[in-house]
Amino acid sequence: MIELGVNIDHVATLRQARKTWEPDPVWAAVEAHLGGADGITVHLREDRRHINDDDVRRLRELTQVKLNLEMAATDEMVGIACGLRPEMAMLVPEGRHEVTTEGGLDVLAQEARLQGVVGRLAEAGIVTSVFIDAEIPQIEAAARIGARVCEVHTGPYAHAFHGVGRDAESPAVLAELAKVAAAGEAIRALGMRFNAGHALNYYNVQPIARLAGVRELHIGHSIVSRAVFCGLREAVAEMKRLMRAAAGQGA
């Protein structure tokens, strides 16, 4: 059954705007859980621009759904992950000047190093995911390093969707959707779990949720944005309803 992982980074972004103690990401995680989230995702960045070490520690201790820790493949972050033991660690590229993650991780260019990272995480009992573009060579490299999950970057699909006025049947959108679908088939054929995420929202999520074999979608900014107007619990519940309806799994 398709699952929803809610990224709560931007709850912490709001907190950091005033350098205060609220809103609390842990409270957000509880509300997301009550709305139907199957997991919570946070990105602990090198510069701690939003989520910080104390947030991750409290999330590990207090949340009742699985925790997915987005992280760069650095010694510092691997050490933190091995200490906290989230259910999943997702390796992502990271740049100091990016607003959000831009593009997938180039697994192919750093296989040997990443294989060591995946091995360390596996020894700590952590499932490793890699955030990659919808490219077959990257998927094959992910399998070689021992990743158990590939999250396909849906940004190009989402940007095409927005660029043509939300026309889900336009050639540009269908072309990007086909790339994600082909990537998903390759991931599954290599024995890995097919997840997807990035720039998904209430208007473009259903074609992705409808793809064969997709197990989990990670969505953050759109849900947190809607929560400003209707509350986080309802925002999560509505996204989950859309995903389940698209996947033919009922409400």
UniProtKB/TrEMBL annotation:
Organism: Thauera phenolivorans
Major subcellular site: cytoplasm
EC class name: transferase
Keywords carried by this UniProt record: Cytoplasm, Pyridoxine biosynthesis, Transferase
Residues that hold 3-amino-2-oxopropyl phosphate according to the record: N7, R18, A199, G220, H221
Quaternary state and interactors: Homooctamer; tetramer of dimers.
GO biological process per UniProt: pyridoxine biosynthetic process
Record's function text: Catalyzes the complicated ring closure reaction between the two acyclic compounds 1-deoxy-D-xylulose-5-phosphate (DXP) and 3-amino-2-oxopropyl phosphate (1-amino-acetone-3-phosphate or AAP) to form pyridoxine 5'-phosphate (PNP) and inorganic phosphate.
Subcellular location: Cytoplasm
GO MF annotation list: pyridoxine 5'-phosphate synthase activity
Listed HAMAP family: PdxJ
Family: Belongs to the PNP synthase family.
E.C. number: 2.6.99.2
Binding site for 1-deoxy-D-xylulose 5-phosphate: D9, H10, R45, H50, T100
Site (Transition state stabilizer): E151
Protein name: Pyridoxine 5'-phosphate synthase
Keyword Endoplasmic reticulum: no
Catalytic activity: 3-amino-2-oxopropyl phosphate + 1-deoxy-D-xylulose 5-phosphate = pyridoxine 5'-phosphate + phosphate + 2 H2O + H(+)
Known pathway: Cofactor biosynthesis; pyridoxine 5'-phosphate biosynthesis; pyridoxine 5'-phosphate from D-erythrose 4-phosphate: step 5/5
